[in-house]
Automatic annotation (TrEMBL):
Keywords: Coiled coil. Residues 199-280 form a coiled coil. This is Chromosome partitioning protein ParA. It comes from Pseudomonas guineae.
Length: 456
């Protein structure tokens, strides 16, 4: 392996989705290009994403983690004011759990080496069923980024690094005892390491929960203070309104008392005036009553005279209308008798009279032109005009009907395979006797004679 392809530590950035999985992975130079505006992420438009910066060793093990937020605008471009020094935070971060390569460097909200960056960081979930650290460890192991991995096979030791043991140590002690001691020491070390890692995870989780609870308590306290201020403002407004209402009520009571006293004085004065009027007005009312009765009698007499005059006029009008009705009835009877006389003379007698007077009956029909109908043919013409005209044209009634349809609309009547009429315009046959069905009413392509010639 050349020096250029030698595995080395790699910086990478991974984006968390809302469901908790990893939705995007990239190298740190790609992330810097994203921050510089070289590329955008439309899939993250108008969202605040949870992101993790990590340092990965050649054996695909995580050595450092920084959990931070990144805001994107409606076009998918990152916040231009974002300026968290991820590499510096990763180097100065405190110790975290062991993800396979010893305790990692971990920077998050509850463990941030720079206090003013704390609000831009977030705490990973460490619950057994939803551990973000374990998720990142497994994603890195899958090597979706295609990192160069260090060969884990045992490397040959260079001869110059070999050391010769002293002669008295060439022969090893009892292998069983040595193996048991090594196994016990290794088991003890593993147990201590696991206990330390578990304690570290629990401390981190406790710190994260404490931070979360303090934030929630601060929010509740702020909401309570704002609600208390609002309630106090409402109480003050209500007290002021109550005082204003009390002053207004007192003014209204005083006004009502003054009005009541004034009404009482006016009532007493009106009572005295009424008594005086009653005493002085009795005689005047008697004279007024007599005058009123006289006037009423005069008005009634005048009205009765007017009504009698109107009744007399109505009687005259009724007599005139009765005379008109009698004359109209006589005229109706005379007209009925004249109608009966006309009805008794028959229609034939009327036609004979008209014929004797020199009147001629002429009708026009297509194909026959103007026909003069003798008096003796009037009845047959009335029964079936088309049969009468067909006989004059020396054709049958059916042929005349077919020719008349062709004459009124000269077009091909043949049916196409689709069931519609051909309807191509053709030459009109002016004489019914020259009309031939399936020949004169069809175009050249549908004439029966052309079909017969084609078959033969």
């Amino acid at each position: 392996m050349s020096m250029q392809n030698k595995p080395q530590m790699v910086e990478a950035v991974m984006f968390f989705s809302e469901r908790g999985g990893i939705c995007k992975q990239m190298f740190f130079p790609e992330f810097e290009a994203l921050l510089d505006g070289v590329v955008n992420m439309p899939e993250f438009a108008d969202q605040q994403m949870r992101v993790a910066y990590m340092l990965i060793n050649p054996r695909l093990l995580i050595k450092g983690l920084v959990f931070f937020y990144l805001d994107f605008d409606e076009k998918g471009a990152p916040d231009s004011g974002w300026n968290i020094p991820l590499q510096a935070l990763g180097e100065r971060a405190g110790r975290g759990p062991d993800l396979g390569a010893g305790p990692i460097r971990l920077a998050c909200r509850s463990q941030c080496p720079v206090s003013w960056h704390q609000m831009h960081l977030w705490d990973p979930s460490l619950s057994p069923g939803n551990n973000d650290l374990a998720l990142l460890r497994d994603v890195v192991k899958r090597n979706s980024l295609g990192l160069l991995v260090e060969d884990e096979r045992s490397q040959a030791v260079a001869p110059e690094r070999l050391q010769m043991a002293s002669e008295d140590k060439w022969y090893a002690p009892d292998p069983g005892q040595e193996e048991a001691a090594k196994a016990n020491h290794k088991l003890d070390q593993e147990q201590r390491l696991k206990a330390a890692q578990l304690i570290k995870q629990q401390r981190l989780r406790i710190s994260s929960l404490t931070q979360q609870h303090e934030e929630e308590l601060a929010k509740f306290k702020l909401a309570s203070e704002e609600q208390s201020k609002s309630r106090q403002t409402q109480i003050t407004d209500l007290q002021q309104t109550l005082r204003q209402q009390e002053v207004h009520n007192a003014a209204l009571k005083a006004q009502l008392a003054a009005q009541a006293a004034s009404f009482q004085a006016v009532r007493e004065e009106m009572t005295e005036q009424l008594r005086a009027l009653e005493h002085d007005g009795r005689s005047e009312s008697d004279s007024l009553r007599a005058q009123f009765e006289g006037e009423m009698q005069a008005k009634i007499a005048s009205a009765v005279a007017d009504y009698k005059e109107q009744i007399a006029i109505r009687d005259v009008e009724l007599a005139y209308r009765s005379e008109q009705d009698t004359q109209a009835l006589q005229e109706i009877n005379r007209l009925k008798r004249a109608y009966a006389d006309l009805a008794s003379q028959g229609g034939d007698q009327i036609l004979e009279r008209l014929a004797k007077l020199g009147m001629v009956f002429v009708v026009y029909h297509p194909g026959a032109g103007h026909l003069t109908i003798p008096l003796q043919d009037i009845a047959s013409y009335q029964d079936n005009p088309q049969a009468y005209v067909a006989a004059k044209c020396f054709v049958s009634e059916e042929q005349y009907r077919q020719w008349l349809a062709h004459y009124q609309q000269p077009s091909c009547e043949a049916l196409l395979p689709s069931g519609e009429r051909c309807a191509i315009p053709i030459d009109r046959i002016d004489t019914p006797s020259r009309f031939n069905l399936a020949e004169s009413n069809c175009c050249a392509r549908h004439k029966a004679s052309s079909r017969l010639r084609t078959v033969s």
